[in-house]
Amino acid sequence: MGDSWKDGLLVYLTRPEDRNDVVYYDDKIVVALDKYPKATLHLLVIPREILPLGVGDLGEEHLPLLHHIASLVASVSSLPLRIGFHAVPSMRQLHLHIISDDFSSPTLKNKKHWNSFTSSFFKSLDSVIEAIESKRRFNVDAEYEEEKLSGKLVCHKCSEAFAQIPKLKQHLASVHPASPDMTLDSVLACLKTSKKRQAPASPEDVPSKRHASLADPKES
């Protein structure tokens, strides 16, 4: 089997309307539920063009795509979400994470999972765009970045340190619980609003069948 699993995101690029785990798509991107979510809400934004790239491979030629994604997620920027890229991705196809900052999930199991989202290993979309606009590229030192994954377990909200993931997760649940308002439908409603502001909806610019009930009659 080798490392063919690294191409697992390619299945989302064709006929996304037929997939139950796709929650939104247009002609440039697909938004899908992460198969192994690390928080209450965890989405992947995947370009529909095949781009076997990491964030460290991005340059000026990718700015139109990045701005398109930024315009889509702008409406959720006020929510307790983290929006960005892993410095060194595990999957080959370029993808961006939208993840709630409660990190409440049984599939968040180890230090690597935790630090990949709560340390500077996680590169915000805004910082990537800003760097490319000013320096023409977004440079990544992979070895340096991967060292961050073995760093200490520290609460991202109050900086308390923990020796083990179970203790950290207990702390999060009791001191920093997930917001009851952080739901998939609330985020999708914001994404729909964002697209309404940009332009009239097109046949490809719609929620998937799973969330078709969110669409107005004029847009479906």
TrEMBL record:
Listed under GO cellular component are: nucleus
Q: Name one GO biological process term.
A: single strand break repair
For this protein, the record's PROSITE patterns field holds: HIT_1 (PS00892), ZINC_FINGER_C2H2_1 (PS00028), ZINC_FINGER_C2H2_2 (PS50157)
The entry's keywords: Hydrolase, Metal-binding, Zinc, Zinc-finger
Residue stretches making up the C2H2-type domain: 153-181
Its taxonomic placement starts with:
Eukaryota, Sar, Stramenopiles, Oomycota, Saprolegniomycetes
Name of the molecule in the record? C2H2-type domain-containing protein
InterPro entries the record matches: Histidine_triad_CS, HIT-like_sf, Znf-C2HE, Znf_C2H2_type
Q: Where is this region: Disordered?
A: 195-220
PANTHER family in alphabetical order: APRATAXIN (PTHR12486:SF4), APRATAXIN-RELATED (PTHR12486)
Q: Name one GO molecular function term.
A: zinc ion binding
Can you name the source organism?
Answer: Aphanomyces euteiches
